[in-house]
Amino acid sequence: MKLNFKSPFLFLPLLFSFSLSDLSSDFYSVSCPNVELLVKDTIRFASSTDPTLLGKLVRLLFHDCIVEGCDGSVLVQGNRTERSDPANRSLGGFEVVEEAKRMIEALCPRTVSCADILVLAARDAVEIAGGPSVQVPLGRRDGLTSSISNVRPNMIDTGFSLDEMARLFSSKGLSIDDLVILSGAHTIGSAHCTSFSERFQQDSKGNLVPIDSSMEKDFATELIKQCPANANDTVTVSNDMVTASLFDNQYYRNLLDGRGLFKSDSVLFVDERTKGKVERLAEDEDEFFAKWRESFVKLAGVGVKTGERGEIRVSCVNVNE
User: Fold this and answer.
1) Residue 243 marked as a ligand binder
2) Which GO terms of the cellular component aspect does the record hold (predicted)?
3) CA-based, 20 to 30 A from 114: which of 60, 138, 278, 294?
């Protein structure tokens, strides 16, 4: 099976036993009481000139949490780090996380972890895009290592079946319900044409034709128009072509219409175990937002490090010397 290293968010078969018991929503209430405001203001200002940043930050959090847990290890620069793997080279949002870190270090030196800043940044990105506000527990510490060797074995392809995805989610304490809800992150952001290329093939004239019957015909035609056979690997399309910049439940409506961008999206409406969930979320945005709050907190708790298992980095791009 071909691994696709430009998928918008991917999950891994690592067994995580996580608990939020060491985290709390008021963790920085004394040591850095303005941390949440500082992060939100940074994200709001940056996204006002680059709206694509919001989707990038959500994706960045997913790619952090799936490898070594939510420990900021994806932010570290350098050869052979997680960030250098092909799966992560198309990620964005690093600069705004580092900018928030610089501001916070000036006011609260060696106090707030990059891992917490990234969780807050992704949380705020969803809210700024029109999604729900979420209260997240804080107190994560930054990972002490970041290794490329931990990335590739733990990535899955967007062509995976529901069984494969459910098994991987279960290994991290996440349910099929969480899978359906967290897939709703595809309501914002964009994806490279190569991330869904397996749904097409070239005919004798070199033109792309759809081979995935679950795609609605006009949608497939539009994808071919935006991603022709000669498109280079930097070309992207919106995950949700209807309300591309708005965090809403349009993603689920798209699935009902055969307009899921990835095969891993489409299977959610094809499989009877998840079809009813998709239908309910397509009808009720309030339910989606309520469930998003729960699943986001669960995701942000995967593999968290506290105490001596981590550190507070001075800069998010470097592990402390």
Assistant:
1) yes
2) extracellular region
3) 294
Q: Is the pLDDT of residue 21 over 70?
A: no
283 annotated binding-site participant: no
Work out the angle at residue 198's Cα, subtended by the Cα atoms of residues 196 and 204, and round it to the nearest 5 degrees: 125
Q: Are 4 and 195 in contact (CB under 8 A)?
A: yes
Q: Which CATH class is domain 162-295?
A: mainly alpha
pLDDT at 31 over 80: yes
Domain boundaries, the chain: 35-156+299-309, 162-295
Q: Is 216 annotated as a binding residue?
A: no
pLDDT digit string, tens, across residues 212-258: 999 999 999 999 999 998 888 889 999 999 999 999 999 999 999 99
In the chain, how many H helices and how many E strands?
A: 11, 4
> Rounded CA gap, 123 and 39, in Å?
10
Nearest in space to 195 (alpha carbons), one of 318, 80, 87, 316: 87
Give the predicted TM-score (pTM) of the model: 0.91
CA distance 259 to 275: 14
Active-site positions read 63
Kindly give the pairing relationship between strand 208-210 and strand 190-192: unpaired
Which H or E run contains 209? strand 208-210
DSSP 210-239: E--TTS-HHHHHHHHHHS-TT--TT-EEES
